[in-house]
Amino acid sequence: LTFPLLSVTLLLSFGSSMLYGYNLAVVNSPAVHIKAFYNTTWSRRYGQGLGPGPLTLLYSLTVSIFALGGLLGSLLVGTLVARYGRNGALGRSALLVLLAGGLMGFSRQLASPEMVILGRSVTGLHSGICLSVVPLYLGEIAPKNLRGFLGLLPSIFICLGVFLAQVLGLPELLGQDRYWPLFLAVVVIPASLQLLLLHCFPESPRFLLIERNDVCGATKALRRFLGTPDVQDVVEEMKEEQRSLSSVEMVSVRQLLQDHAVRWQTLSVVVVNAGMQLSGIDAIWFYTNTIFQNAGIPESQIPYTTVGTGAIEIVAGLIGCFTIEKLGRRPLIIAGFCAMGVCQAGITACRLLQPALPWMRYVGVACVVGIIAGFCVGPAGVPFLMTAELFTQSHRPAAYVLGGSLNWLCNFTVGFLFPFLQMSAGAFCYLVFCGVCLLVALYVHLVVPETKNKTFVEISRLFA
C-alpha cells in the first residue's frame, strides 16, 4: 500500500463518495424548515399556502430528484470515461457541485424553491457520475491483493458523509431555520479540495494502455502508484487482456444486454444493484426522523438517536473494509442482506407490538441500527467493487452505466413512494423490503462466485 495509492483513494472518497452520503441524509433534519419555506413562498406568490398533500408531494420531489439527477449522471458515465478518462471525468464533475452549492445556498434570499430542487438534481448528477467512476478508477489502479480494501474505502466515506449530515443537522449547529441553506451548500468544500488536488495523480494505467495504447504513460502511472520501477509483470497482464480484446470494441449497454457470453455477470449486476436500493436503506436515510417519530421516540431525542445510528454506520463500514480481503466478497454481501431482511421484519413486529409494549420502541431503534449496519458491512460498497471485477475492460463501462442506472432508478422510486407507502400500508411496508433482501442474498449464494485475489481474466473464465 503506497502513499500515492492511499492518497488518491482518500481524496476521491472525501471529495466524491462522502458527498453522496451527505446528500442522502442532508434533507432529513431540516425537513420542517424547508417545508415551511415552500409554504411561505407559495403563500406570497399565490395568496394561499399549500395543503398537506401537495406539500408532501413537493417535498418528496425535493428528496427524490437527487436520484433522477443520479440516473442521468450514471447514463453519462460511459461517454465521459471514454472521452476524458477516469481521472478527467472526476475532475470535471466536481464543477457541478460548485454550481449546486450556489443554487441551494442562495435559494432563500431569492425566495426560490426551484433553486433548491434544481440544486438537488445537480448534486445527484455529480453523485451519479462519481458513484460509478470512483470504484472504476480505484479498481483499475489497485493491485489485486488490495482491490477489496481500496474498493471499500469509499463506502466508509459514504457513511462519514451521512454521519456528518446528521451531526451538522443538530439544533445546536446548522439544524436551525436560518442555517438550512448553508447546511445544503456545505458540499462545495470537499468538491473544491478534490478539484485542486486531483491533477496531481496520473490517469488509470489500464485505461492508458488498453484503450489509448499508451504503454509509456501506463508504465509511468504504474510506477507512481505501486512505488516500484519493476512493473513489467503488471504491464504484461494488461497486454494479455488487451490482446484478448483486440478484436472486441467497447460495447454499449444494448450490446452488453445482448451478449450471451456475459449474461450471468450482467444479471448479477442487475440483481445486486437493484436489490441494494430496494432493500429500504434509502427510505431510512431519507426519512430517519419520521421513522423514529412513528416508532414513538420522544421528539427531543430523535436528532441524537439519528446521530447514534450514523456512528454505528461508520463502525460497520470499517468492519467490512478491514475484513473483505480475509473473508471475501460473497460472505459479506450475503450476511449484509440477510441481516437487513431480518431487521426489516423486526421493525414491522415492533410497530405492531409497540402500543401494548412501549419498550418495543427501543427494539425498533435497534432494528434500524441493524439494517444500517448490515448495509454498511456488505451491500454498501461490495456491489460497485463486484461490477469492476466481473467484467473485462471492453464491458466494464457499460456495466457501470447499467448498474448505476438501476441503482438510481430504484433510489428515486423508494425516495418518492415511501411516504405514501407508509401512509397506506403502515408497519407492513417494511415486509416488502424484507423480501427483497432475502431474495438477493439467495441469488448471490447460488450464482455469484468469489472474486478475491483473482485477475479480471480469471474471473471471466470462472463465469464461462
From TrEMBL:
GO molecular function, one term: D-glucose transmembrane transporter activity
Keyword Transport: yes
InterPro entries for this protein: GLUT, MFS_dom, MFS_sugar_transport-like, MFS_trans_sf, Sugar/inositol_transpt, Sugar_transporter_CS
Keyword annotations: Membrane, Transmembrane, Transmembrane helix, Transport
Topology within the bilayer: Multi-pass membrane protein
Stretches that traverse the bilayer: 57-82, 94-111, 117-138, 150-168, 180-201, 332-354, 360-386, 398-418, 424-444
Origin superkingdom: Eukaryota
One Pfam assignment: Sugar_tr
GO process terms (BP): D-glucose import; dehydroascorbic acid transport
Primary localisation category: membrane
Keyword presence, Transmembrane helix: yes
GO cellular component, one term: plasma membrane
PROSITE patterns: MFS, SUGAR_TRANSPORT_2
Compartmental location: Membrane
Occurrences of domain Major facilitator superfamily (MFS) profile (ranges): 9-452
Similarity remark: Belongs to the major facilitator superfamily. Sugar transporter (TC 2.A.1.1) family.
Full protein name: GTR9 protein
Species of the source: Penelope pileata
